[in-house]
Automatic annotation (TrEMBL):
<dbReference type="GO" id="GO:0005886">
    <property type="term" value="C:plasma membrane"/>
</dbReference>
<dbReference type="Pfam" id="PF13593">
    <property type="entry name" value="SBF_like"/>
</dbReference>
<feature type="transmembrane region" description="Helical">
    <location>
        <begin position="66"/>
        <end position="87"/>
    </location>
</feature>
<dbReference type="InterPro" id="IPR038770">
    <property type="entry name" value="Na+/solute_symporter_sf"/>
</dbReference>
<protein>
    <submittedName>
        <fullName>Solute carrier family 10 (Sodium/bile acid cotransporter), member 7</fullName>
    </submittedName>
</protein>
<keyword id="KW-0812">Transmembrane</keyword>
<keyword id="KW-0472">Membrane</keyword>
<feature type="transmembrane region" description="Helical">
    <location>
        <begin position="229"/>
        <end position="253"/>
    </location>
</feature>
<dbReference type="InterPro" id="IPR016833">
    <property type="entry name" value="Put_Na-Bile_cotransptr"/>
</dbReference>
<feature type="transmembrane region" description="Helical">
    <location>
        <begin position="274"/>
        <end position="300"/>
    </location>
</feature>
<feature type="transmembrane region" description="Helical">
    <location>
        <begin position="131"/>
        <end position="153"/>
    </location>
</feature>
<keyword id="KW-1133">Transmembrane helix</keyword>
<feature type="transmembrane region" description="Helical">
    <location>
        <begin position="204"/>
        <end position="223"/>
    </location>
</feature>
<feature type="transmembrane region" description="Helical">
    <location>
        <begin position="37"/>
        <end position="54"/>
    </location>
</feature>
<feature type="transmembrane region" description="Helical">
    <location>
        <begin position="99"/>
        <end position="119"/>
    </location>
</feature>
């Protein structure tokens, strides 16, 4: 059972297959243009569905826990960028400039929504606070991430200003989300009843973006720039970054006197980064083949955080069962 949790899930295996397909059969010319249009529509649908299935009642239930939310936002948008900058003397010489910028981009992203809530639930943390914190982080990221990218990386969208990048992201991600929230009144129940297969909408849009981005990157010489030894170094860098984030979020929650349930929420919401938000944002913030290199650390970090957090959630769940058994 333990080893099974360390193995990649089906989505990660599919993601690897898409990267392989983009390596062997990259889209180019008119085909690439068609894929870009389909990808933009899929991303809009993804965020519309997020808006339609996210319960406003659940968000309001956890909204009052402002100290917890502030700490999660500080970990997501301050602690991670500081870690990325602190690791620069070691990472940039080892990984090269472009992959190091990919690590910085990873540090600037918002937290995940689904997996942060799922792990908090499994570990018996503060679930309403996790829902509110993760959702707010995702929405804040639409505005904060472009600012952080401009500050950390000197990137200001496709050739425009940071405000232009925020405007593009708001149009592509925030507007569909808001429309989904409005439509929730009519389709929210249907979405919740069919979420078992609607998750493939999320996954398909990410796979489309990855295929399009990696196709452009492969044509631009991605795998000549990232040999196996460099890939292993990126994996090691992601492991170090995640370990530091987990330790520091755990210690901050403890030092600030949060309950165990709240500390679990802080751990899982404050240490995770969103592939679902990060990949579409990269489409807007960066141009051409550079996207493939820049999102490579994010893709690796995504799988590592899922495997590590699955183990941690199980440990927390078992730790909380002990007092109940003793009481009986």
């Amino acid at each position: 059972m333990f080893l099974r949790r360390l193995l990649p899930d089906n989505f990660t295996l599919t993601l690897l297959a898409v990267v392989l397909a983009a390596t062997l059969l990259p889209a180019s010319g008119q085909v690439a243009t068609i894929f870009e249009w389909i990808t933009n529509l899929a991303i809009a649908l993804l965020f519309f569905m997020h808006g339609a299935k996210l319960s406003r009642q659940a968000i309001l239930a956890g909204a009052g826990h402002w100290r917890l939310h502030l700490l999660v936002f500080a970990c997501t948008f301050i602690l991670f960028p500081l870690l990325g900058l602190a690791l620069r003397p070691a990472l940039e010489p080892l990984l090269g400039k472009e992959l190091y910028l990919g690590m910085l981009y990873l540090c600037a992203l918002p937290a995940t929504v689904q997996s942060a809530i799922a792990f908090t639930s499994l570990a018996r943390g503060n679930i309403p606070a996790a829902i509110c914190s993760a959702a707010a982080s995702s929405l804040l990221g639409i505005f904060v991430t472009p600012l952080l990218v401009a500050l950390l990386m000197g990137v200001q969208g496709d050739n425009g200003s940071t405000l232009d990048a925020i405007g593009k992201i708001s149009l592509q991600l925030l507007l569909p989300f808001v429309l989904g929230q409005i439509a929730q009144r009519w389709i929210g129940g249907w979405v919740n009843q069919n979420k078992s297969w609607l998750k493939y909408v999320d996954q398909s849009s990410i796979l489309l973006v990855v295929y399009t981005a990696f196709s452009a990157a492969v044509i631009g010489g991605l795998w000549q720039q990232v040999p196996l030894t460099t890939l292993l170094l990126v994996i090691a860098a992601c492991c170090v970054l995640l370990a530091l984030a987990l330790v520091l979020t755990h210690l901050l929650g403890k030092w600030l006197g949060f309950s165990l349930e709240d500390r679990i929420t802080i751990l899982f919401c404050g240490s995770k980064k969103s592939l679902a938000t990060g990949v579409p944002m990269a489409q807007v913030l960066f141009a051409g083949g550079a996207i493939g290199v820049l999102i490579l650390p994010l893709m690796l970090f995504h799988q590592i955080q899922l495997m590590v957090c699955a183990v941690l959630a199980q440990r927390y769940a078992k730790r909380e069962e002990a007092p109940q058994i003793a009481a009986v």
